[in-house]
Amino acid sequence: MNEHGLNGVDLGRGLILPNAVGLASGTAGYGFELQQLMDINRLGALYTKGTTVHARAGNPPPRVAETGGGMLNSIGLQNPGVEVVATAYAPRWRGWAIPVIVNVAGGSVDDYVQCVRILDPIAEVAGVELNISCPNIAQGLDFGRDPGAAARLMAAVRAVTERCVIVKLSPNVSDIAAVARAVEDAGADAVSAVNTYIGRKIHRATGRSVLPLGTGGLSGPAIQPLALAAVAAVCDAVHIPVIGVGGIVDAGSARDFLIVGACAVQVGTATFVNPETALQVLDGLRD
Amino acid sequence: MTADLSRAALETGEVLVVERLGGGLLELVARLPHLAATAMPGTFAQLRCGQSTTPLLRRPFSVAWTQDDTCGFVFEAVGAGTRLLSELQPGDPLDSLGPLGHGFSVVDGGSVVCVSGGLGCAPFPLLINELRRRGVEDILVLNGARTATRLYPAERFARPAVPVVAEATDDGTRGHHGPVTDLLDQALSAHPSALYACGPNAMLGAVMRTLLESGAGLPPTLEASLEAPMGCGFGTCLGCALPVLGEDGASVWKLCCTDGPVMPMREVDWDGLRALPGADVA
Q1: Which residues of B are less than 8 Å from A274 in CB distance?
Q2: What CA–CA distance (Å, rounded) separates B240 from B155?
Q3: What is the pLDDT of residues B227-247, one digit of tens each?
Q4: Number of domains in chain A
Q5: Domain for residue A203, yes or no?
Q6: Strand partners, A15
Q7: Mind listing the pLDDT tens digit for each residue in B132-158?
Q8: Which of A67, A78, A249 sits opposite B253 (nearest CB)?
Q9: Please, which of B10, B120, B211, B281 could form a disulfide with B79 given CB 3.0 to 4.6 Å?
Q10: Which residue of A has its CA nearest to B232?
Q11: In chain B, what residues touch A222 (CB-CB under 8 Å)?
């Protein structure tokens, strides 16, 4: 167990997760709902909903569509903006045992830097996860697809914070290892992989795409083997900690990521089906 | 604002019966003690359909009624999830997460009109039971469906005393020949203190239009139970957005699962709702 960090995962710069099982960004909000449905404080980390400089209303519905063993989403980073997170949400995390890592998204380097600057002095924020991989907003993938752009973004963020910075990688690239190496070289403390896969569903009755923007992000158990291959490639490419995410539904599917070299995992869509999934994964890994 | 989920709980209950009501309507009765003890009118449960990862997501169902430690749900087998539910046998386990959502504001007096379209009957037995518990006896149900066999049976809207149920069918096979909204004018002439509606979003929009055009004035309490494709049901996936008019009159997204499913009809952006594409039933 200890070899997989189940009793503490050191992500660097003083951020030590109490255990290896976290809640993935976009599937746990800011923790306030799940806190009411399960013992969130037993988990290793909460990665918040993607947070931007300004509030975002999100995409028009329908925003979700079920697929075989998975779901497509096109939420469009609906969030209240970083100021609200910093001033209204963070105080509510005070006293939580679970480290809260704020997922930050943006359309420009300045957007990310501004968010990180605002979050940097807040004690309740354990670290940041840079979302360079959202498939559902314009420019959401600009940084995730280009190793040079990803490195420039990481370097700019590194210049404004001494906190632990995790970069969440997109699988919608030809060479995920190249992006991982680029952000490692630019100062990332850890990487998480993967965000959702771009997918599309056709409404059989109308012949049109179900999601209004055409495509969305595919998550759920259907992507676990794909995510596992991507994470294995990333683990081979970098020396910093790798957090595995994608299609975990139980301890077995989580352990797969640890076996290929991840030091921690995030449970995502399975939480929608059963809010206690992450706890079950943690207990299962410890058995 | 964070939704109050303090009543919601995971629970594995037991199927007692899946009854075929005719016309494709099904009533699932299950022993779910926590849900039965805590469900309020208009709230819903997220039911797991099978144990596999396909279909992956739970399906939301209004709690139709409760009795002792059992709950009833009304549905139709239209997709993979509801087909699995329709095949459940007595004794099978049923995995529920609930109660969830914001239910009806139940009035304490006056007269009440309930407008149901098709499967929109689902939340009304529990609502009517609560209205009666609060002393409201003047309850009129307007029940519409495509055809007679798809009308939820009048005697099931409340037990043992059946409320007044006026029926309408699109094909004229029972009751009024035409949409259920045709029955609204007469119902409004009694100036009800509350009108509750549930049905397809398009039908709810037609109810609102009819109310506004009737000239009778809107009932003080005017609420509808809406629907949207849902991911989690408890406010974290943000998937079930519906257009609602904000304080400045501009349309904003609210969540069907935690801001609704019951919303004040005055606040819904009906034009925005009508413009949305139809649901994809999986």
Answers
A1: 10, 97
A2: 33
A3: 999 999 999 999 999 999 998
A4: 1
A5: no
A6: A12
A7: 999 999 999 999 999 999 999 999 998
A8: A78
A9: B281
A10: A272
A11: 53
Residue A57: closest C-alpha in chain B: B253
Strand B221-225 relative to strand A15-17, pairing: unpaired
Q: Which of A273, A276, A277, A279 is best to mutate for the B interface (most B CBs within 10 A)?
A: A273
Burial-class residue A239 by CB neighbours within 10 Å (0-12, 13-18, 19+).
exposed
Q: Residue B83 sits in which domain range?
A: 9-100
Give a yes or no: residue B36 inside a domain: yes
Q: Say how many C-beta atoms besides its own lie within 10 A of residue A208's C-beta.
A: 13
Q: Is residue B211 part of a domain?
A: no
Chain B residue closest to A211 (CA)? Answer: B277
State the residue range of the domain holding A162: 2-59+76-198+220-286
* pLDDT tens profile B47-65: 999 989 999 999 999 999 9
According to DSSP, the residues that pair with B197 across neighbouring strands are B115, B224
- Find out whether A90 and A46 touch, Cβ atoms under 8 Å: no
Tell whether A34 lies on the interface with B, counting CB pairs under 8 A: yes
Q: Is some CB atom of chain A closer than 8 A to the CB atom of B50?
A: no
**Cβ(B128)–Cβ(B163) below 8 Å:** yes
Residue B17 resides in a domain: yes
The reported pTM is 0.96
Closest alpha carbon to A192 in A235, A161, A159 = A235
Q: Do B54 and A203 touch (CB under 8 A)?
A: no
Sort A2 into a burial class: Cβ within 10 Å, 0-12 / 13-18 / 19+.
Answer: exposed
